[in-house]
Amino acid sequence: MTAPAPRNSLLLRTDALEQCRYLDRSHIRVLSVTAQAGSGKTVLISQYDETSDTPFAWVTCSVRHADPRVLFEDVARTLEKSCPALESEAVLNIFEQPLSTDELIDLGVHRLREALEALDTPLTLVMDDAHRLLGHDAALRLIRRIQDDTPHSLRLIVISRLPLRLAGGALFAPGEQLVVDQSILALNREEIASLYCGVFGIPVSTKHIDRLFETTEGWVAALVLLRNTEDPTMLKSPAEVRAVGRYFDELTVSMDPDAARELLLAASLDAIVPDVLGDLLSPALLDWLTAMAANNLFVRFGVESGRTILRLHHLFQAHLAEKGGAAVPAEERRAYLARCGAAFLNAGEVSIGLDYLVAAGAWVEVEGALKAHGLAMVADNLHWTLLNLLDAVPGPVLAASGWMTLVHGIVLLNVRPKDSADSLRRAIDLLREEGDPVGELIATAMLNTCNVMILGRFGRRANLVRRAVELFEPMKDRLPSPLIKLVAQSLSLGYAYLESDLPMAGRYYELALAHTEGKKADTDPELLLCRLLLLVLGGDVNGALDALSPFFPLSNDTMISPTVRYWLDIVQANYLLMAGDIAGYRHMRACIGTKWGDKPDRSFIAVFLVVWDLDRLMTEGRYAEAHALAAGFDAAHPETLPHMRSQILHYRMLAAAHLGKREEALRVMRAALRQRAIGGGIWFSLLTRSLVGAALSLLGETRAAERVFHACLKGYRDRDIVHPHTVYAYRAAMRFGTGRDQEALRDLGALLGLMRRRRVPHFFGWSPRIMERLLCRAVRDNVEKRYALDLARDRLGLDILDDGTPVPLLRIECAATLRLSLGPVSLSEDELSPMWRKVLRLLGESPRRVLGVEALQEELWPGSSPEKTRSKFDTMLSRLRARIGAVFGEDARQRYLQLHGQKLYLRHCAIDLHQALRYAGEGLEHAARDRYWQAQTAFTHMRGRLGAAYEQPAAWAAGQEAREVIIRALVAWSALLVRCNAPRQALEVVDKALALDPINDTAQRRRYDLLASLKRTAEAWKSIKRYRTALAEEGFDEQEIAQAIDNIFVS
């Protein structure tokens, strides 16, 4: 709203204004003006506005502003009016996505801060009538955040009748605000004399002034109302003066009776809007109000959303409302409010219209308005507006209305998700009774989504899906596209989670996709969830990673809902784990901790991370740690939803079985099955039962395990679910252990063949102890031998000999400092002679890890004949082998350095440089194909394999060819991070590239652009100077250097 009309006809409050102007000179950014109604608070700040060089933006708070969404939009739009360079639409476009209250406040203030920082223009935001927000903590939190998180160029003035309090304490502490209170606002004798003699033109005596001061205590409203009182003896006491009703009556005594009665009705309105009210506002009353506003007599004039607004002063409005309560029948007042509500609805002011309809008790009209506008209001994040409206509806009325109950449930789904299911269930019953199939369909779809996504309730809920299909199919061609999309998504989730019917889930996913607007299909997280489920439940984890990849930029976009970004991160972590990329999962898990702080502990989806941590620990053979984590979490969180608790329990059961804790394993097994029976979901039920079979096989319960495995395989076949890996693995191990080798080999072949075809080297319940035995048998018996060898290297760090003997891989770091390690034992560069180091580096950098003996002799003893140096070579090799054997065991002496004919081989080893180059190549390929997340993962692995060579590029010790590949990968990685909204990470990566190649022009241009975008101008200029120096040191002449520098600025 604009500032109140200029008050040049009123007394200029010189002393009080001086108190206000301390805000201009102070580091404090908040001015609180707190006093009773009628104290001249708004007039004072309007005078401050008129005399200030800083633009003022005014928001007059009303009941609508209890919704932080409404309050923030009004703040942004009024700031734009005061400073047109601030584009409010660019600030408000964050509301085009579903947001929780906290997210709305966080993102809104973040975007506002960016807009204000870009302007660097002093502005003053005035929150008038802020006391109307008391009790509405979300709105008060927004005001607090604006003060905390916006630049000092924005100052805040809060005008309120009462001190503002939040969470039991003051909204602003004493040291955070300057205060203008009743004592400053009260007029002194000199100001009373000036008011009466100078403004009102009423000559008064000193005695009269003294009496006015004593009886009014400088209260402005009373002084204005008493200006026609000629006899000071009539002024008896301050208490009597405060009974101002009779003075207000004097203002209306000459009004037309019809207009006076209409005024009593209009006092029920928050604001009088002539353009909206139309015939409901008579010309006589409009003229009277306009005259009162022109004379500054308890009517305020303003402009809001392009419309003239008239507001009655609070004291005047309260008096009229009290008087109207006695003079106007309640039925007449309700009818008037209902007509006003309809007028505002017709004018597009839906929230205001609903307010008046609720106040009128026009429940049929309220229900109709919610049916017409409720879903759109939810989509516009007006959650608190709707919740406050519905809270004002009497309980019996709400409980009897299908659409009111439906909207209430949907709002709770956004505000308090776990409390929404009861309302949605009631809405289904009511709407069915009312014969409203569209409403029942919406309620059914929303409850299904709530059960799947929020409550994790899958058991016996398939009837919701079937009922939704019965309702949806006959009418789907007549429904609007947004509603078709909403229902189709819900049905896709339902068929996938509840019934594991992937063809039906896919059909409804395609329907939802067809009804999604253009480009939104590429960035819609709800659609993504449906697609990911179809891919993962269908066994295509790599396809899921491909589908997730385009969303990597969104996961770093600070203007996207934090819940969506957090969800994208943890899903990526999950799929890395499911793909068998344990190192990638660990890195992503660490990034989640760094990026989100304690959000994982506060989010209802955080328990997924605990489940995946358990799977990782099991995969690494850390059974005792997995057992402790599961037992500790279950004890600390007994309220965990059955769907997730069953998974915590089945990992605890399996860990206990691996540790030989028989009684505990059996006890927890029963609990896991009970929780899964409650949670439901066919896919998850089969998973839990598969792990039950695994635990029974470990405990020696062979017959019981066989029965469970058989039932699981039948369930997988019946549903065409391709996830029987756990059954095949543990049953094969059990059968090998009981001498049923042929059956075991068939299971082993089925397991490895399925993993190879699906390109997924992982399954739930993976155990290195079990898999080492199985893979050794696979190699020995030639069962998927090539795949078994690759799986053993990648997942277990083993080579397997043809006879099935496992050989642990020797880890060799040679990109920087040389280091050999086998498990916890290592051999550092300092413990190796220079000649040994050279041999190991040459072999390590060789693509096939093999070199001819003569070539090695020439490298070690250049210019000497091979015949003369052969004995030296043999002695050197013998001593090196002896050293390796002494550190890593006698078996290692001949195992890793093998001499065949005239060639020396480095065998059974994993070399950091080779792995880093492999990942660099993968990352470059993924980046070229815009596969963002896959490229990010590959480059991250490259970084991990380089180790010290990445963290300290000066330590680089590998050859120039490898260096160039890594530089190219780093430059591509930095470009990827720029495109994916991660400029700070991009700067870190490009710095590593420049440490290896200081004159790389692409990297230099990118570094300059990044520093400029991050507003680190001084560093950007220093970067240019360093580039100039590096070019000069490389021998470039001044003209070439100037051209190179110009290219940076041109780019």
From TrEMBL:
Task: Give a GO biological-process term.
Answer: regulation of DNA-templated transcription
Residue ranges of the ORC1/DEAH AAA+ ATPase domain? 28-159
Its source organism is: Pseudodesulfovibrio mercurii
A single MF term (Gene Ontology): ATP hydrolysis activity
| InterPro entries (alphabetical) | AAA_22, AfsR-DnrI-RedD_regulator, P-loop_NTPase, Sig_transdc_resp-reg_C-effctor, TPR-like_helical_dom_sf, WH-like_DNA-bd_sf
Name recorded for this polypeptide: ORC1/DEAH AAA+ ATPase domain-containing protein
Q: Which residues form a coiled coil?
A: none
What SUPFAM superfamilies does the record point to? C-terminal effector domain of the bipartite response regulators, P-loop containing nucleoside triphosphate hydrolases, TPR-like
